[in-house]
Amino acid sequence: MDFSFLGSGNLRLLLAGGVIAAALLWVWRRWTLSRPGGTSAGRPRALDAVDTLVGWPPEATRVLTVKHQRALDLLRQALPQHNVLAQVPISHFIKVPTRYSYVEWQRRIGHVCVDLMVCDSASNVVAVIELRQAERALSERARKRHARLERVMRAAGIPVHIWNEAMLPDPVAVRKAFVPEPVSAAPDLGPDTSPLVPAHYGPGRTRAAAPGEAAAALHGFRDPPRTTWFDELNATRPTQLDSVEVITHDGGHPALQAAGQAQIARTER
């Protein structure tokens, strides 16, 4: 075909338009594949035509192993006031921002399940328990998965307890690890013998002041000096003073003697 009627300028425009159209087609193709419903590059198109039940026949299986069941019973026995869950995916109790692809985060760690999870009565996560086999040699992929899980839990502020499935702790140790110790009560110092100071509420209304109020009211006052008045009442003889003449009743009082003689004289008459 003869394109001699096209000038050099028109040919350049035509080539540029073709390049732009090819670039737009490539961008549209990439956007279609990146959509949730699109087909990824690593996924064969033939799988889209396979029926879910026909290609993957479902069959019920056990959720927990025997050792996981023992650990679950131990937690329920030690923490009766808590909710204990098993095999919970991380994406069910961890949320992340969607600045990047959520599908990629789900592929990396969101689909991983924790072995056991302890929640309070309001379904808030308290801690995560992972059961490990001490004698089992983990693969590099498993070690990376465990390390990634622990990093995510640590960043979310969720404690992770690693238990050896062959040597589970006793219920008392489990309760001490998850339930804080109650504050001990103050020691009994006996009855309060501090004086009560009446506190006025209004005309004709009083109440006994509290110990703290009584101490504040008595602040600055001193006890009165001791007296010997009661000691003198109990003594058989008065206290001898230097400047006072003490008259005792041992030899008889003059007035009493005169009265006795007058009584005797009247009797004799």
Structure description:
By secondary structure, the protein is an alpha+beta fold. Among the domains are: 8-52, no CATH class; 66-178, Trna Endonuclease, Chain: A, domain 1 (3-Layer(aba) Sandwich). Helix content is 39%, strand content 13%. It is built from nine helices and six strands, in the order αααβαββαβαββααα. The chain has helices spanning 8-34, 52-55, 66-78, 102-110, 140-156, 171-178, 211-217, 229-234, 254-268; strands spanning 83-89, 113-119, 125-132, 160-164, 198-202, 205-208. The strands form two sheets. It has a four-stranded mixed sheet. β3, α5 and β4 (160-164) form a beta-alpha-beta unit. α3 (66-78) crosses α6. The longest helix is centred in the first third of the chain and has 27 residues, at 8-34. It is elongated and about 180 Å long. The termini are far apart. The mean pLDDT is 75. It holds the Pfam family DUF2726. The chain crosses the membrane at residues 12-28. It comes from Sphaerotilus microaerophilus.
> What is CATH's topology name of the domain at 66-178?
Trna Endonuclease, Chain: A, domain 1
How is the main sheet built?
Answer: 4 strands, mixed
Helix content: 25-40%
The count of strands amounts to 6
Radius of gyration: 50 Å
What percent strand?
Answer: 5-15%
Tell me, briefly, the overall form.
elongated
The secondary-structure element order is HHHEHEEHEHEEHHH
How far the N terminus sits from the C terminus, by CA atoms, comes to 190 Å
Which structural class do you get from the secondary structure elements?
alpha+beta
Strand order of the largest sheet: 1-2-3-4
Work out the helix count: 9
CATH architecture of the domain at 66-178: 3-Layer(aba) Sandwich
Mean of residue pLDDT values: 75
